[in-house]
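Table S2 (text version). Query chain:
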Amino acid sequence: RDDVESRGLGDVYKRQMYQVSTLQALMMGDYEGHISIRALLKKGDTGLGTFDSLHGEMILLDGICYRALEDGHVEVSQEEDRSPFAVASFLKEDDAFPISAPDFSALQQALNARRIRQGKNNICLCRIDGDFEEIKARSEVPQTRPYRPLAVAMKTDQREFTFEHVSGSLVCVYFPLYMDKLNMAGWHIHFISKDRRHGGHVFGLSLTKGSARLASLPSFELAIPQESDFQHLDPTVSKEDIEAVEGKKA
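Corresponding structure-token output:
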């Protein structure tokens, strides 16, 4: 620690991404809630994830945790609710800039151009507030035991919806390639409308105009679940299954 601080990197310990469990575990069907929302909110005011039994998509914004249900409607989660997989950080931007993008690919390219300025192999967290011509999003039906692998469950229980001419916020999380399978390499994005009534996991969009706040995070904390579901999993998962679930190609 002293050596780190002597090199001017003491702030590393204050600027980190916190993650509970791994993407591999979620992909293999570990939907058991490992952390309460109360505890997660102590780790950050901005983030994303899912809920116990895969009951909805999580959007963490301004220190409030929201749940996007299978019909795209949003509710505020309870502090005693639990999550099997989530990431959170306190958003302190290194870069703020205007942004627009005709489609999902263009948005990722624009975000990549800005994050690389901070260091291309860091984890990044970005919030975008803006006006959207279209948001294509999804959530999923809650699962029951015995839990199926995520790629299998999503074939029948994913629900997609489109929001048109809507204002709102994107929570965007980037993990570098070397962290592949701990989390998804690349950008993972969730949306919530300005009125906090609609949202979900984003797989397509058109951003008319917006303002972005991007933080480059040089530290990472992983909470390894001790519950039997996680500890007995075989974490083998294919890149193709991850891409299918995320709704995009690498």
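Notes on Table S2: Confidence is low (pLDDT under 50) at residues 1-8. The two ends are 36 Å apart (CA to CA).
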